[in-house]
Amino acid sequence: MGGIGPVETALTHDAVAHCFLRDGARVELTPKAYALLVALTRTPGRLVSKQELLNEVWPGVVVGEAVLKVVVNEIRNALDDDAKSPRFVATEHRRGYRFVGRCAADGAAVDPSRSAPAGRAGALRFLRERLERAELGERQVVFVAGEAGIGKTTLLDAFLATLPPGFAARVGRGECVETYGAHEPYAPILEAFARLARGPPRSEVVETLRRLAPTWLLQLPALTHGEGRAELVRELFGSTRDRMVREAGDAIDALAATTPLVLAFEDLHWADASTLDLVGALARRGGAAKLLVVATWRPIEAILAGTPVRALKETLLAQRRGLELQLEVLDADGVAEHLRARFPGAEVPDPVARRVHDACDGHPLFMRHAVDWLASSGRLLVKDRRLELDVAAEALQIDLPESLNNLLTREVERLSRDEVEALEVASVAGVDFSAATVACGLDHEVVATEALLERFVRRGQYLRSRGVMEWPNGTISASYEFRHSLYRDFLYRRVAAARRVALHRVIGLRGEQVFGARVAEIAAPLAIHFEQGRDPERAVRYLELLARLDARRCAHADSAAALTRALALVEGLPENDRRRRTIELLLARGSARRTAGGMAEASADYEKAARLVAESGDRALELRAQLLIASATSWIDFARSCAAVAAARRLVPGLADEGTRVLARGVLAYWDLLIDGDGSGLEESSRALAQARASDDAGVEGEHAVRHAFLLLAADRAEEASALARRGRELCGAADNAFDPMVGAFVEVFALLRSARRDRFEELLGEARRHAEQNGHRTFALLFSMLSRWRDVEDGEDGAADVQLAAALEEARALKHVLSERLALALLARLAERRGDPSRALQLDDELARGARERHVLMQWITDLARQEKRTPARSRPASPAKRPRAKRG
Questions:
Q1: What is the mean pLDDT of residues 533-549?
Q2: Is 14 helix (H, G, I), strand (E, B) or coil?
Q3: pLDDT tens profile 719-736
Q4: What is the DSSP string of 747-777?
Q5: Given this model, what pLDDT does residue 743 score?
Q6: Closest CA to 363 of 334, 398, 396
Q7: What does the DSSP 8-state code read for residue 226?
Q8: Residue 740, SS3?
Q9: What does the CA dihedral 311, 315, 318, 323 come to, rounded to 10 degrees?
Q10: Percent of the chain at pLDDT above 90?
Q11: Which of 189, 181, 159 is nearest to 279 (CA)?
């Protein structure tokens, strides 16, 4: 190896601009030369092997060492470096290269251990390496795993604190919070967007969200107002959970297209299902993005909370879409590093470091508290620039606390009474809270409480500031959060059970009073406060509100989870109200599950509700429950669906008033069409629609409009059917009914197919199919695909139709959806007949006929149209259901 010349100090790495500077001037490098120099400067002075450089700069590509040598020479030429007397890149013969100069990142020297928490230099270097890969356009998702107090948040803070100044404005950070079942979907993602928007890129973030993710912009009230917000509300109609995932991915990729973006999510073990879906989607998206996602989580907590974060992590690792950084306890060297930082300039003897390590088992948080306690009690001190542990402390080694609980107990005992009470009330308020909330629990003035909490912030103890919070009544107070959830958990357990219940209730009532008409904004924490405050009536009310909010965000699984929690609290309600609320909750949860595609679970909820309603004697509600059973079971069990319709029919004569009977007969006319192909109930359906309009209930009118549109379609009145179905979809959406708009979309698309219109057909079909796919309704998506294939067959565009129909037939059988299966068979038979293969057509027709004989089939008349209809005058078409004789009902 040649001699090493004088150290050069003028090389600067600008990670944001993706370049190196020398004496303030840009060093012109090719992309590979830049990547190679990044790899070398990452660990100054360290020998980097040739193979390591080849693997990093040319991943997955077989190149020889000669190529590496050429790129090293490019770097030397650009830096005016001499291989024989290197100032920057030195060659280790046959081994590799090392960076021997000095480099700065935006003016700060690059040192892998700089600002690293004790024992975490390697972990910090790993995160910086991932960031460098992200700079090159390779999206990175890193799961930082470890037990509580192991230092995940500290590591994340250190990593973000050492980013170049240009990066600081490109960091979105969000935290998942333990909510005992009342999750707010996408909460950490929304928090990350909000933090991004509070920084310099505000206008870029808002414009990107408005253009690519309007459903997300609507969830951030601080970024929208006035007419712009009203316009977004209208645009949100028909949005779905998967639409939100797709839009967030598009917006994040756009923000990370040219400038690196870091998204940091803490405590993913408490994440809602929607947030985990989005993290997975970000990892799986194709295309380049300068994106680094860092997510911390605790494996044990994930198991206890029952969240699927472990499965997500393992799946992404198996797909090579993610990486894991496991933080372990510190060894004695890590403890010594902490002691040197805690006692600057003092020599730390190995026996002292080992003794402290043994006392706290190398757990970072335990260690920090143990060291602080020993130092404050005079047992750990510096003498003659040497750290010593006095004899008394050594004698106490066996008696040193073995758990954080004991350490924190000792620390809390040294606080004043008012400080302890403030922290305990804060722990009841939540992981993050305002001074005004704590003041309410203490029954103190806000200003005095704020001053009390600021003591902890100034000392760097327990709490840190989150800025300022303004309540709807104009109250302005500082906002805080616990520095670690362990603090909050420890303090929360200290509060006596009776006092804890009272505090939860007081805080909940105060929030209810202050937020008034805007109480929906805090539905999730209110649900928790009233549940823990033993106020089941209010807890159920806010869980129901939370479920509705979840449904509007298309987080239907989360909506069902909130309703499940509410059902567990029903026993605490007054006896005269218990049955009614149980029925309402079961029906609501069934509808959430039906919208999410869980037809078996939805059917079970509806059937439980129907049994309770039958005992109460409310015939109108019992009829509604039976029709909901029919709707859910029609997808999975045709016999049960028919039985539910028959049960509903028997209830009609006993209904209390003629208006309700008119509505019921209209719904049954719709089911006659679905089950028997009997479209003769058009007039009954028309009267029901008129009655629904008179009720001034948008939801009821929307449902009847969709059903009547189906009957109009069967009567060859396709134009009317299309317009009415569209109107029904709008009304249902406005009434928070997410299921019937998909039924209406099927009617509208089918109506356009029947009317031979193509201008609106293509647009609506694509929209409807995407809606079904985004909502997780595989069967609805398949039905829309079948209409697309039908259109191809009708128009003679059948080049690949047989292959597509064969695939659809296989999917229909896998889903056990009979209508889709029979549509595929009918269209395949038409294709065989058209292509001169009568034997194949006959075989398929026999299969259709055999299926019809063996089982009653939903909407058989649609299958008949698919098999027989051609572009001929109306008089030569098969008879429409409305013109057929009424089928015998069972």
A1: 94
A2: strand
A3: 888 899 889 988 888 888
A4: HHHHHHHHHT--HHHHHHHHHHHHHHHHTT-
A5: 86
A6: 334
A7: H
A8: helix
A9: -80
A10: 29
A11: 189
Partners of 389 in beta bridges:
380
| Biggest distance spanned by C-alpha atoms of the chain | 109
Give pLDDT tens digits for 211-232: 888 888 888 877 776 555 556 5
First-to-last CA distance in the chain?
A: 94
Torsion sign over Cα 112, 115, 119, 124: negative
766-791: average pLDDT:
78
Please name the residue ranges forming H helices in 516-637: 523-532, 536-552, 556-569, 575-595, 599-616, 619-633
Element (H, E) at 815: helix 801-815
> Which helix (H) or strand (E) segment is 399 a member of?
none
Local structure of 443: helix, strand or coil: coil
The residue to which tokens 């997808």 are assigned: 635
Please give the single-letter amino acid code of residue 490: F
* Structure-block tokens of residue 848: 């259709």
DSSP H or E run through 27: strand 25-27
Average pLDDT, the chain: 82
Mean pLDDT of 12-25: 71
- Interhelix angle for 698-714 vs 682-694, to 10°? 160
Q: Is the pLDDT of residue 504 over 50?
A: yes
The tokens describing 168, both together, are 């600081």
Q: Which of helix, strand or coil describes residue 433?
A: strand
Judge whether residue 833 has pLDDT over 90. no
Under the banding of pLDDT at 50, 70 and 90, the label for residue 9 is very low
Torsion over CA: 473, 479, 484, 488 (sign): negative
Q: Which residue has the tokens 């999510």?
A: 265
For residue 40, give Cα distances in angstroms to 20, 31, 528, 732.
Answer: 13, 14, 52, 61
SS3 629: helix
Alpha carbons 763 and 825: distance in angstroms, whole number: 26
What integer pLDDT is reported at residue 646 of this predicted model?
Answer: 94
For residue 195, the Cα-to-chain-centroid distance in whole angstroms is 17
**φ and ψ at 633, to 5 degrees?**
-75, -15
Q: What is the pLDDT of residue 857?
A: 64
Does residue 216 contact residue 190 with C-beta atoms inside 8 Å?
A: yes
The C-alpha atoms of residue 120 and residue 150 are separated, in whole angstroms, by: 11
- Phi and psi at 104, nearest 5°, equal -125, 150
Rounded to 5 degrees, φ, ψ at 280 are -65, -40
Between CA 570 and CA 170 the distance in angstroms is 46
Alpha-carbon separation of residue 195 from 291, 292, 736 (angstroms): 16, 16, 30
Q: Which two tokens stand for residue 647?
A: 């049960």
Nearest 5°: CA angle at 775, between 633 and 755?
80
pLDDT at 876: 34
CA distance 804 to 810: 10
Closest by CA to 422, choosing from 509, 495, 314, is: 495
Tokens of residue 331, six digits: 């060894």
Cα 424 from Cα 497, distance rounded (Å) = 12
273 vs 559: CA distance, rounded Å: 11
Among 753, 743, 739, smallest CA distance to 786 is for: 753
For 465, list phi and psi in degrees, rounded to 5. Answer: -75, 145
Residue in the block written with tokens 């073995």? 402
Round to whole Å and give the CA distance between 239 and 252. Answer: 19
Apex 663 CA angle, 586 and 886, nearest 5: 110
Are the C-beta atoms of 866 and 783 separated by less than 8 Å? no
Q: Around Cβ 250, how many Cβ atoms within 10 Å?
A: 15
The dihedral of CA 719, 721, 726, 730: what is its sign?
A: positive
Reported as a pLDDT band with limits 50, 70 and 90, residue 473 is: confident
d(CA 292, CA 321): 12
Q: What's the whole-model pTM score?
A: 0.67
Residue 410: exposed, middle, or buried by beta-carbon count in 10 A (0-12, 13-18, 19+)? middle
CA–CA separation, 261 and 248 (whole Å): 14
